[in-house]
TrEMBL record:
Keywords: Signal. This is Membrane-bound lytic murein transglycosylase D. SUPFAM superfamilies: Lysozyme-like. Belongs to the transglycosylase Slt family. The keyword Cell membrane does not apply. Residues 1-33 form the signal peptide. Residues 115-215 form the Transglycosylase SLT domain. It comes from Sediminibacterium ginsengisoli. The keyword Glycoprotein does not apply. It comes from the Bacteria. The lineage of its organism: Bacteria, Pseudomonadati, Bacteroidota, Chitinophagia, Chitinophagales. InterPro entries: Lysozyme-like_dom_sf, Transglycosylase_SLT_dom_1.
Length: 348
């Protein structure tokens, strides 16, 4: 089950999307009526998916009310940033043309009590391509090997190879992932086992003395290790916050400043004694703080990411002591001129 990249022709995928949407309608009706899976095995929402990403997030599960990046495991950050640089724009486009496929996946994964985020495994396996065949013989959007497909009742080989059928292959992939989760209890380990086999993951767990992916990763083959990290990167791009998914290295710094802004909640005393106003322009924090006679560390505490966001051409909500607001308004043109002059002199 190996993914070779994401340089397939999207016009082919887009054309297939219409067909998939019809399959989704039919599949939805069938899936909605299930009390058992296609093989007669009872299914329920018993895998507790919210706990299964404990290796991915610092707090063991994702809290949708908080910025995604602040919860991402620090050991994943560097890989995710590089992955965004290489694949972000392509995967952003997939959010649109891949919607019929994702709708189909979401519906089927829900039947098995699996988190919908596991659909991203199909992204890194095949780029949602039904016709992909790997060097090892894995086939279809979920890159199923022939022995796994047969084990779950799919017809294999020739033009009628059901591994290429989105609906049927997704049911099999879901059953396989559910089986792996029952054993390993962590979705990142499910991804590792899906790629490299359960035996390799068991061996890595024994050698590392841990079931945490970040502890055992170096006991896994490099391909499997990177497969998991591609899943993490894809998860971030689709589940993370908006435009952060297509950033350059410089833009990533701006995004970090944005996150700092989101988290910088003023204390009750600060909120009572300060006011905020929206500004735009290439102001410099040192120039503003010096002219308003505000300690620079206090200014930065009130206004995290001030220089980076204004340098990126963003609007900024400036927080100042209430008695300094009128002073800023009176001097803002002079402050802007001096800020630009200081920036030119510093070469920024």
């Amino acid at each position: 089950m190996q993914w070779f990249g994401i340089n397939f022709q999207h016009n082919i995928s887009a054309a297939r999307a219409t067909l998939v949407s019809f399959a989704f309608l039919a599949g939805s009706m069938a899936a909605m009526s299930f009390t058992n899976d296609p093989a007669g095995v009872a299914v329920s929402d018993s895998t507790l998916p919210e706990k299964g990403f404990k290796s991915l997030f610092t707090n063991n599960k994702f809290d949708a009310t908080k910025p995604y990046s602040t919860q991402l495991n620090p050991r994943a950050v560097s890989f995710v940033q590089e992955y965004i640089r290489k694949q972000g724009k392509e995967l952003e486009r997939m959010k649109t043309w891949g919607r019929p496929y994702f709708d189909l996946y979401d519906n089927i994964l829900a039947v098995y009590g699996l988190p919908r985020e596991m659909k991203y495994l199909s992204v890194i396996e095949s780029h949602l391509s039904s016709g992909l065949v790997s060097w090892a013989g894995a086939v279809g959007p979920w890159q199923l090997m022939d022995y796994e497909a047969r084990r779950f009742g799919l017809r294999v080989g020739g033009i009628g190879d059901e591994r290429m059928d989105y609906y049927k292959s997704t049911h099999v992939a879901a059953r396989l992932m559910k089986e792996l989760y029952t054993e390993f209890g962590d979705w990142l380990l499910v991804v590792a086992a899906y790629n490299g086999g359960s035996g390799r993951v068991r061996q890595a767990i024994r050698k590392a003395g841990s079931r945490d992916f970040w502890d055992l990763q170096y006991y896994l083959p490099e391909e499997t290790r990177n497969h998991v990290k591609k899943f993490i990167g894809t998860h971030y791009i689709f589940e993370g916050s908006g435009g952060a998914t297509t950033m350059t290295a410089a833009e990533i710094e701006v995004h970090k400043a944005n996150l700092a802004l989101l988290e910088a909640q003023p204390s009750e005393a600060d909120a009572a004694n300060t006011s905020a106003l929206e500004i735009g322009g290439r102001y410099n924090s040192l120039v503003v703080a010096n002219h308003l006679l505000i300690d620079i560390s206090q200014f930065n505490k009130w206004n995290p990411g001030f220089d980076k966001l204004l340098a990126a051409g963003k609007k900024y909500t400036l927080r100042l002591p209430k008695d300094k607001i009128a002073v800023f308004e009176a001097k803002k043109e002079q402050l802007l001129i001096e800020s630009v002059r200081a920036l030119l002199q510093s070469g920024s």
